[in-house]
Task: inverse folding
């Protein structure tokens, strides 16, 4: 197997491992990074974690010339050719990385960006906050993969020199010549987008759980049930970006009390994996794994950055269904099991 042990590869791996420990940048297997060497594009494998970049071989090489040729013909459904014996699949967003000319490309669902990108007025907010020396473009929501890559290529063509692309209800992608440049650019973008966060001094403990449920391990997450403002956002704005829907489902299972939960789940059938009991807490069944908890924390971090009376953009039924029926996402979820 080809191994990414060149100088640039080692620098990227070290930076990815560092980013992977910051929940405001990376959530589990979310996000992807690539670098180009000649006719090879090194891309994170689907379902792998950037946090493991130094301890595991999470990057796989694909034929860049093959991808570039397809992109020139507007073939964004091209299947990347892996040029090693890796059993992993390249990232869903491989074509997106290939079409950007920069040697290093970083795609993140960074919380400070996502908190702005789920807003109805996302583009206007970004225009008011971005420094004049950052060249950027904005695309509406598209299904990750071929549809999104098509939109980004058009955006890049309309915004010559743009090295940051904002993707509504999704995240950001940026390009740079070096790891140092990428880090500096990312810090500048996220600093400009930073939102105030309402953090109380203490968080009340959840009430006792009822089998087969247990309180989620992250104590702050119980504010989703105990804080009226956050609970209202949960009920009104659940399905707001792809990874949240893929791992936590399209609808929040909220109940006014344990009695309400029992009454609505009295008939035989599968119980919700995650439930939110008003004034009691957030509870999960066995099987609610680290990836799902990470995604719930990301959602919490996004909505605690929303001001009172905010209007967010929900994914519609068709957008939700295409994510849940997508083989590429089913594969990614299997890797997390």
Result:
């Amino acid at each position: 197997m080809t191994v990414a042990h060149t100088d640039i590869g080692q620098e990227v791996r070290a930076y990815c491992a560092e980013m992977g420990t910051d929940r405001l940048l990376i959530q589990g297997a979310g996000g992807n990074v690539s670098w180009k060497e000649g006719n090879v594009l090194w891309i994170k494998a689907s379902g792998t974690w950037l946090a493991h970049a130094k301890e595991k071989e999470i990057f796989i090489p694909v034929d860049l010339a093959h991808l570039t040729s397809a992109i020139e013909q507007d073939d964004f459904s091209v299947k990347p050719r892996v040029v090693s014996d890796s059993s992993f699949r390249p990232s869903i967003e491989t074509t997106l990385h290939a079409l950007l000319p920069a040697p290093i490309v970083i795609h993140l669902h960074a919380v400070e960006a996502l908190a702005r990108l789920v807003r109805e007025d996302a583009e206007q907010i970004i225009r008011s906050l971005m420094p004049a020396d950052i060249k950027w473009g904005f695309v509406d929501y598209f299904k990750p993969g071929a549809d999104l890559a098509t939109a980004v290529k058009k955006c890049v063509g309309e915004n010559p020199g743009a090295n940051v692309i904002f993707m509504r209800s999704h995240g950001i992608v940026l390009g740079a010549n070096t790891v140092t440049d990428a880090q500096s650019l990312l810090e500048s973008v996220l600093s400009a987008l930073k939102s105030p966060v309402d953090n109380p001094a203490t968080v009340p403990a959840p009430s006792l759980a009822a089998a087969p449920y247990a309180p989620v391990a992250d104590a702050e997450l119980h504010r989703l049930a105990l804080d009226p403002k956050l609970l209202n956002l949960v009920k009104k704005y659940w399905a707001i970006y792809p990874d949240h829907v893929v791992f936590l489902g399209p609808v929040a299972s909220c109940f006014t009390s344990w009695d309400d939960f029992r009454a609505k789940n009295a008939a035989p059938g599968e119980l919700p994996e995650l439930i939110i009991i008003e004034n009691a807490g957030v509870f999960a069944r066995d099987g609610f794994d680290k990836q799902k908890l990470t995604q719930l924390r990301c959602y919490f971090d996004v909505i605690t950055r929303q001001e009172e009376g905010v209007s967010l953009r929900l994914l519609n039924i068709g957008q939700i269904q295409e994510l849940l029926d997508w083989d590429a996402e089913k594969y990614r979820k299997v890797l997390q099991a």
Summary: Residues 214-336 form one domain. The first helix runs from residue 7 to 19. The chain is about 40% helix and 15% strand. The two ends are 25 Å apart (CA to CA).
